[in-house]
């Protein structure tokens, strides 16, 4: 089974955490390979999610211009092409990139959307964008992100709203209006939950935002009732195994609950989360699932079809990608 060329659906990938060294050097030639290895790539295990998030600050500092954002998009599409990605949803927090630059939030979204559409056309990778609000934003900033998503949806690849950042100490109450706005406008929504926090955070996300997708959600496995609900309502979990180990959300890949989640009937997909911070490729994630957890071709096929079902794409796109998946996995 050549895992490199198998078509893949990736729903959870942060644009601002994917910069290769080559792209970083194009943006700022003063950054040496040694500095990149030290400041941009995290250790195999960070003591906590907060520690992991510290690395993302270095990427954000670089991504404060139209040129840098376009380089980031080109770079991640190059990486995804080598990984056989057929459909992707990239996410980023637009207000972060407007923070220290002269760009407005609208300009940030417009540049990323335009470059994404161009790269999607050039590579044949179907792509959608998810805008992220952050756990530590207040209600107004969260709404500002949701309004950006609503304004830019329809005319390009923007298709959803997410909330990222550390769950600990930041409940979702202040973000409920942003999610309501996005849902009323017909956008897809997803929520980072059950990563550093427990199953109660996953339940909070379902109840307060109406989401049918959870970023990570690995701690759902600790709550039998929640597992039954996720399976019954077909709530999709965006699982990022290497990232989960790196952020200490799970102790090791061997102990990762993805197998137990699937056995409970919960639909899951596999993504990289933060390719560069975690120093991982999507193909590598698949190889580790095959080698460590014994996943077969049938497992990869089912997982990709489940991810596609949960994607924020119109039915005609899903049908097209589904045909590609079914054909490719039948041939292996
Ligand atoms: Zn994430």
UniProtKB/TrEMBL annotation:
Gene Ontology terms, MF aspect: hydrolase activity
Co-factor(s): Zn(2+)
InterPro entries, per database record: A_deaminase_dom, Ado/ade_deaminase, Metal_Hydrolase
Pfam families assigned to the protein according to its UniProt record, in alphabetical order: A_deaminase
Domain Adenosine deaminase stretches: 7-325
EC number: 3.5.4.4
Primary enzyme class: hydrolase
Keywords tagged on the record: Hydrolase, Metal-binding, Zinc
Domain of life assignment: Bacteria
Family named by the database record: Belongs to the metallo-dependent hydrolases superfamily. Adenosine and AMP deaminases family.
Name of protein: adenosine deaminase
Organism field: Actinomadura yumaensis
Gene: add
